[in-house]
Structures are given as structure tokens and as C-alpha cells.
Specification:
Elements: H1 3-28
Length: 51
């Protein structure tokens, strides 16, 4: 492989590895406030009785 090929390969592999590490860091380390998570209360009326 030529020198240009090695440089391109190392840069691309380094970028992908760095991006993966950054994503893992964001998911595992950064804490977000719990009020950011809101559930939806959807009433489908499938459990209501017709009495």
C-alpha cells in the first residue's frame, strides 16, 4: 500500500474510533435532568368496561 493509502486509512479509522468513543462517553457519562423525560398518557379505551 502506498503512503497516501496508509494516511487515508489511519485518518478514517482514527475518526471512526474517536467518534465511537465520543458517542459512548455521551451516553454513559453525561447526566441529563430527569424532567427531560416525559411519558405520554394515551387513552386507547381498550380496557374500559361498557357497564
Amino acid at each position: 500500500m502506498t503512503v497516501g493509502g496508509w494516511i487515508t486509512m489511519l485518518l478514517s479509522v482514527g475518526f471512526v474510533t474517536g467518534f465511537f468513543a465520543w458517542c459512548v462517553y455521551k451516553v454513559l457519562v453525561i447526566k441529563r435532568p430527569s424532567e427531560d423525560f416525559h411519558g405520554m398518557d394515551i387513552d386507547t379505551r381498550d380496557t374500559d368496561s361498557d357497564d
